[in-house]
Amino acid sequence: MAADPYDDLAKAFQILKPMAEQGNADSQYNLGLMYERGEGVSKNYHEAVKWYRRAAEQGLAFGQSSLGLMYFEGKGVHKDYEEAVKWYEKAAEQGLAESQTRLGVMCFEGKGVPQNFEEAVKWYQKAAEQGQIHAQSNLGFMYAEGKGVPQDFTSAYMWFHVVAAGGYDVGSKNRDQVQTRMTHSQIEEGQKRSEEWLEKFKKG
After folding, report:
1. Residue 22 contacts by C-beta under 8 Å, 6 or more apart in sequence?
2. Residues of the chain with CATH 1.25.40.10
3. Among 102, 73, 98, 97, which residue's Cα sits nearest to residue 85?
4. Percent of the chain whose predicted confidence (pLDDT) is above 70
5. How far apart are CA 127 and CA 200, in angstroms?
6. CATH superfamily of the domain spanning 1-94
7. pLDDT of 134-150, one tens digit each?
8. Within 10 A of 58 (CB to CB), how many other CB atoms are there?
9. What is the C-alpha to C-alpha distance for residues 32 and 54, in angstroms, rounded to an integer?
10. Coil, helix or strand at residue 102
């Protein structure tokens, strides 16, 4: 008879909880994750927030990012975009690409911060260079529309092509759309730059 995965998660929870209570930030974050997802324990967003906060306050980027998302979605706390931005920024400054992307979106949409396209581009760029696909797509859009940066179809094409190479249809569609506004030499340059970036990224 196969083991029940929930039993294994419940055992993991019992191991993690004492470590979290002793102040281990990684255990606190993982405990928060289990409460949020209802893995090994009943789902409880308030408990998830409590443990994410403890990890976040110790400087753990994943805890900060998760706490920010709880504030953004209003899970276990009242929805608060300013608090979401605060925690996203702490994680983004530590280099967490997911938080950099989310912070870029907040800057773009003016949620929790004044709308600022230049700041959005800055955070999208940082995340895109780490391979974050949504940031790459958003950065391509910013170049295509000239938001926060001078309009640059070649750079837009490059990032859309990178997204398409990752297997995302939205990249192909956006690349093909921006291509209609480009010269042949611009398209060639965009292809060259995207291939160079992909090769560099693969090498790490």
Report:
1. none
2. 1-94
3. 102
4. 97
5. 16
6. Tetratricopeptide repeat domain (1.25.40.10)
7. 999 999 999 999 999 99
8. 15
9. 9
10. helix
pLDDT tens digit sequence for 170-190: 999 999 999 999 999 999 999
**Beta carbons of 137 and 163 less than 8 angstroms apart:** yes
Q: CA-based angle 135:79:42, to the nearest 5? A: 95
Structure tokens at 1: 């008879």
Q: Of the candidates 64, 44, 42, 41, which has an alpha carbon nearest to the alpha carbon of residue 52?
A: 64
CA distance 157 to 182: 9
The pLDDT score that the predictor gives to residue 204 is: 81
DSSP state of 115: -
Give this prediction's pTM: 0.92
- What one-character-per-residue DSSP string does 133-175 give? HHHHHHHHHHHHHTSSS---HHHHHHHHHHHHHTT-HHHHHHH
